[in-house]
């Protein structure tokens, strides 16, 4: 172990880790929005929207995220979409994770018992009121765990944006491996930082879970 | 520059080679991941601490870091310690180990989830520990681990795309080679995506058949 | 609530019209016809019990009155308003929400909202739908919880309650909208035997207050005690109806006799 070298390069890694956090958080937010939209489409009463939602889930879960990123970043300019690497990374990851979120959200909504909607409707609540007041609050609780799983997957998946030259953790590690020929040391630094980010994410989810526990 | 998919058929042989190598990569890594997963699960569950704890650490480390980073580590790490392997082998080992770790987690959970009363029942009949494991625990665990192992296999197929960074001419890298001659990234990446989608459909159909078979053995 | 289907509640000569009226109700689930032309009329303040074997269509009938199931044919009227009015889309949605506010429904499995406290369960609908102030609704809810004997559980979550307590909260929740009728769908079927009485007691109390009630039940003794009229349903039709004394002691139809024999033996 070359400790001197490790200490010398660590600041670069920490800076890169911050980029990883930013990418992960932003694409998680986008993913949640896409997931909500997707679930709304898939559960709605309009058939074209349901088909569209189904196609979104199937296409984005059925192909590698890497290819999706490449189509967006390298293929985008051909169809008039010019994005900087960071933005392309956030959009690519967010839309990809959104397909998984769609299924989590849909599953959670469907998992709320039918009797809940019936009871709300029998009191005279409208379809929208029953959804907002009764079904969604219960579904939200069921969504916390899948949200945690998706977040951890997203943090690890964010390494993909290194291939479109976003200077995040994996990109930095790869560059330093190439220039120092110390793969184990560089891996160790990056691993510690990834673990720290994932640990932080898990704590956030646990906090949410505790806050929303039923009684 | 508009889109022009007519160049794609000219380079069909690139993509064909890509599909072949993606398949080779996926199948080899899946075999490694399957048997590695069983091995790791057995070690974590039943081996003495001296062996179980380092294995657990390894599992934890590999579950907490990106596959891409692990691929770099294995490719450059092996050559660092004097083992020069072709990129394809590094890719198979990296993918295989990564998913072995996930499979181990599934298998361990599947074994633990079998009601302890089942083991007690078998032992009370006079079956040995190994017999109870072989004839009572395993058959029940197989049913519960088949679907999640299938999901891991689907993820493995898609993640095999990452091995392109090592320069293995699988589907993504094969597309890149075609793009470097034609400068048409959109057309080739979309075509590659479609091919992945087809491979994925085939794999899912196969897995459903396997699941039905496992269900039927009950 | 300005729907044109509503006529004044106490118009000249209209005072005698039934509170609930079902005319020729038909309903199929796929190939199975569960309601084969039901007619039913419940007067104001009357209590009608519906009995019959499982699969007889009695729950479907009750759920149709609340429009949780929609009829294939036939009409349902609540106090001069057609429940399954020939409206479509948004207009029907507005109409049915208004109609449902005038009937309380109690379910076999309570269907309390687990993410809300007892108090919130009871106040949710009046707050949202009647636009009352928090205090007015709270006062009403406290009175109702007191009535069902659960004033001390106001701040508890449903998961902390016994089955009997849950069902009493569900009754309070339905009453909070000050409905004209109460529909009970096997309200005690999911309860442990020792918890049945506390719920029955609340229902008897409502009966004494002349609430119009339609009760689907499999408890013959309770039906005999509270009901003014008993309906026996089997195979999607009303086999016979009459005062409880006559139905239980001198049923006319053979099917009713067979059903009661089986029940009284159990």
From TrEMBL, chain A:
Coiled coil: none annotated. NCBIfam families: HEQRo_perm_3TM. Gene3D superfamilies: MetI-like (1.10.3720.10). The keyword Transmembrane applies. Keywords: Amino-acid transport, Cell membrane, Membrane, Transmembrane, Transmembrane helix, Transport. This is Amino acid ABC transporter membrane protein 1, PAAT family. InterPro entries: AA_ABC_transptr_permease_3TM, ArtM/GltK/GlnP/TcyL/YhdX-like, MetI-like, MetI-like_sf. Belongs to the binding-protein-dependent transport system permease family. HisMQ subfamily. Residues 17-205 form the ABC transmembrane type-1 domain. The chain crosses the membrane at residues 16-41, 53-74, 86-102, 142-164, 184-202. GO terms for molecular function: transmembrane transporter activity. PROSITE patterns: ABC_TM1. It comes from Tistlia consotensis USBA 355. It is found in: Cell inner membrane; Cell membrane. Pfam families: BPD_transp_1. GO terms for biological process: amino acid transport. It is a multi-pass membrane protein. Its main location: membrane.
From TrEMBL, chain B:
GO terms for biological process: amino acid transport. This is Amino acid ABC transporter membrane protein 2, PAAT family. SUPFAM superfamilies: MetI-like. It comes from the Bacteria. InterPro entries: AA_ABC_transptr_permease_3TM, ArtM/GltK/GlnP/TcyL/YhdX-like, MetI-like, MetI-like_sf. Keywords: Amino-acid transport, Cell membrane, Membrane, Transmembrane, Transmembrane helix, Transport. Its main location: membrane. One of its GO terms (molecular function) is transmembrane transporter activity. It is found in: Cell inner membrane; Cell membrane. It comes from Tistlia consotensis USBA 355. One of its GO terms (cellular component) is ATP-binding cassette (ABC) transporter complex.
UniProtKB/TrEMBL annotation, chain C:
It is found in: Cell membrane. Residues 20-260 form the ABC transporter domain. Transmembrane segments: none annotated. The keyword Membrane applies. Its main location: membrane. One of its GO terms (molecular function) is ATP binding. The keyword Nucleotide-binding applies. Pfam families: ABC_tran (PF00005). It is a peripheral membrane protein. Belongs to the ABC transporter superfamily. This is Amino acid ABC transporter ATP-binding protein, PAAT family. It comes from Tistlia consotensis USBA 355.
């Amino acid at each position: 172990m070359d400790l001197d070298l490790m200490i010398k390069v660590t600041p670069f890694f920490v800076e890169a880790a911050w980029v990883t956090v930013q990418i992960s958080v932003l694409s998680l937010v986008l993913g949640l929005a896409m997931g909500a939209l997707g679930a709304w489409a898939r559960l709605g009463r309009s058939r074209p929207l349901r088909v569209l939602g189904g196609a979104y889930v199937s296409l984005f879960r059925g192909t590698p995220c890497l290819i999706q990123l490449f189509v967006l970043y390298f293929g985008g300019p051909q169809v008039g979409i010019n994005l900087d690497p960071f933005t392309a990374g956030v959009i690519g990851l967010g839309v990809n994770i959104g397909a998984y979120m769609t299924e989590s959200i849909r599953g959670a909504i469907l998992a709320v018992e039918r009797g809940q909607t019936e009871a709300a409707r029998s009191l005279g609540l409208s379809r929208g009121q029953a959804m907002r007041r009764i079904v969604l609050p219960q579904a939200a609780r069921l969504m916390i765990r899948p949200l945690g799983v998706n977040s951890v997957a997203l943090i690890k998946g964010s390494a993909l944006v290194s291939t479109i030259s976003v200077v995040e953790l994996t990109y930095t590690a790869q560059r330093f491996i190439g220039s120092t020929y110390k793969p184990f040391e560089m891996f160790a630094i990056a691993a510690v930082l990834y673990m720290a980010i994932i640990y932080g994410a898990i704590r956030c989810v646990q906090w949410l879970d505790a806050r929303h526990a039923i009684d | 520059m508009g889109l022009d998919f007519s160049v794609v058929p000219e380079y069909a042989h690139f993509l064909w080679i890509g599909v072949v190598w993606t398949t080779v990569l996926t199948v080899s890594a899946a075999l490694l991941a399957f048997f590695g997963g069983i091995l790791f699960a057995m070690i974590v569950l039943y081996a003495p601490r001296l062996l179980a704890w380092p294995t657990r650490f390894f599992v934890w480390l590999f579950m907490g870091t990106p596959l891409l980073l692990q691929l770099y580590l294995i490719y450059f790490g092996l050559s660092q310690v004097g083992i020069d392997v072709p990129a394809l082998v590094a890719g198979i080992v990296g993918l295989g180990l990564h998913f072995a770790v996930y499979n181990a987690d599934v298998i361990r959970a599947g074994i633990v989830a079998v009601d302890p009363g089942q083991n007690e029942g078998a032992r009370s009949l006079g079956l040995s520990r190994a017999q109870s494991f072989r004839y009572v625990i395993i058959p029940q665990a197989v049913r519960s681990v088949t679907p999640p192992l299938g999901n891991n296999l689907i993820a493995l197929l898609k993640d095999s795309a990452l091995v392109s960074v090592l320069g293995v001419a699988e589907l993504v890298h094969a597309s890149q080679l075609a793009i470097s001659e034609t400068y048409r990234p959109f057309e080739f990446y979309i075509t590659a995506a479609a091919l992945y989608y087809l491979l994925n459909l085939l794999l899912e159909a196969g897995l459903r058949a396997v699941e039905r078979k496992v269900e039927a053995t009950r | 609530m300005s729907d044109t289907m509503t006529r004044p509640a106490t118009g000249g000569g209209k005072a005698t019209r039934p509170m609930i009226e079902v005319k020729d109700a038909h309903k199929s689930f796929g190939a199975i016809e569960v309601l084969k032309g039901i007619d039913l009329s419940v007067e104001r303040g009357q209590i009608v019990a519906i009995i019959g074997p499982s699969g007889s269509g009695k729950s479907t009938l009750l759920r149709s009155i609340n429009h949780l199931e929609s009829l294939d044919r036939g009409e349902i009227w609540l106090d001069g308003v057609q429940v399954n009015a020939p409206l479509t889309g948004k207009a029907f949605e507005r109409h049915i929400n208004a109609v449902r506010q005038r009937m309380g429904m109690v379910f076999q499995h309570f269907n309390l909202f687990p993410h809300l406290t007892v108090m919130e369960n009871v106040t949710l609908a009046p707050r949202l739908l009647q636009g009352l102030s928090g205090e007015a609704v709270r006062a009403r809810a406290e009175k109702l919880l007191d009535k069902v004997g659960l004033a001390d559980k106001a701040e508890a979550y449903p998961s902390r309650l016994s089955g009997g307590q849950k069902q009493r909260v569900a009754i309070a929740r339905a009453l909070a909208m000050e409905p004209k009728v109460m529909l009970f769908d096997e309200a005690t079927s999911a309860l442990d035997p020792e918890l049945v009485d506390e719920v029955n007691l609340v229902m008897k109390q409502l009966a004494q207050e002349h609430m119009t009630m339609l009760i689907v039940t499999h408890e013959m003794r309770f039906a005999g005690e509270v009901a003014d009229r008993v309906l026996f349903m089997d195979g999607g039709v009303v086999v016979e109806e009459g005062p409880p004394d006559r139905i239980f002691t001198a049923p006319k139809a053979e099917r009713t006799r067979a059903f009661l024999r089986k029940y009284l033996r159990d």
